[in-house]
Amino acid sequence: MAAKRATQADVARMAGVSQATVSLVLNAEPDRVGPDTRQRVLDAISKTGYSANPLAQRLARGRNQIIGVFTYEPVFPQGNGDFYHPFLVGIEREAERWGSDLLLFTSAPVQNGRRRLSGKARAHLGVTDGCVLLGRVEDKQELVHLIDDGFPFVFVGRRELPGSADLPYVGADYVQATSDVVGLFLEQGHRRIGFVGELSDRESIIDRLTGYRTAMRAAGLRPTSFDPAELSADEIVDVVVEHHLTGLVLAEAYRAASIRAAAAARGLDVPVDLSIAVLGQPDVPVEPGADDAGVAWSGFRIPREEMGEQALSLLVQLIEDPSGTTDRHRLLPCVIEPGATVSAPRPR
User: Fold this and answer.
1) In angstroms, what CA-CA distances link 256 with 33, 204, 280?
2) In degrees rounded to 5, what are phi and psi of residue 83?
3) Is pLDDT of 134 > 90?
4) Is 130 buried (19+), middle (13-18) or exposed (0-12) by CB count in 10 A?
5) Which residues form a coiled coil (predicted)?
6) What pTM does this model have?
């Protein structure tokens, strides 16, 4: 027959104190318990082998020290580029520092490849103290509902909501980083630099385009931007040739390898005839099967681990002091990578 598990009442009887006093000791409130009494309780815990229920302790303090992590897209990678992993590394590291557990939400309904944060999925968030949200494409109205509910959350990535809704976020400073990347071209003598990026209301693309246009105009140059969505890599190179561009700034990494290959097929050397910079993750192979493993792409690297850390840290601060003066918007600097795909243009 299994031995009976010791209880707080057993500890209290052995120490000659009330159960309330035992709770104070377990909850680390030394100012409310004298040192001698505290030691008697600790000795009794040791003798009885009492083990506190951590969930009950957390609930008694009004929180359960569980932080949710919700991603709008599947979190585990299926291709050769793992978008979420560095964010999760940072989130996990910071959660350990704060002594919190993480709960990954995976039961939310999926529509058109994206999870929906509504109905039961939104109700499930209530088992946590707050949630870190990640995703490339989100439903802004769902975020407005979370704010109206008073539920603590932080988005990884700058997000703006309609109206006056104030959404907490930790993002990367894409405006400054893109401006700095354009500076790499300018330092090498480029004057005709194009921007390739989707026409989108995504904040990350808007910020990149803003940084490009700002840097070009500051240099007295005319911005030339176009959406590659309906263009093949060969057609993008056609645009380069037609506009006599010597440099391309790619808003995202995915098309870099195919554009480089299409340029080579046209007899254009990268970077001498066409310099290319990738805005974000230049160290990641960008297309399945692309012979690009040895390319050191110029551009910038997103501080994804640090963004994950800062997002969880901000969330904890908002949970502990929701009406405080904590800065709810944080933009972190990106790391500029000079790489090997931007050089001086060929003399013409």
Assistant:
1) 65, 18, 11
2) -70, -45
3) yes
4) buried
5) none
6) 0.79
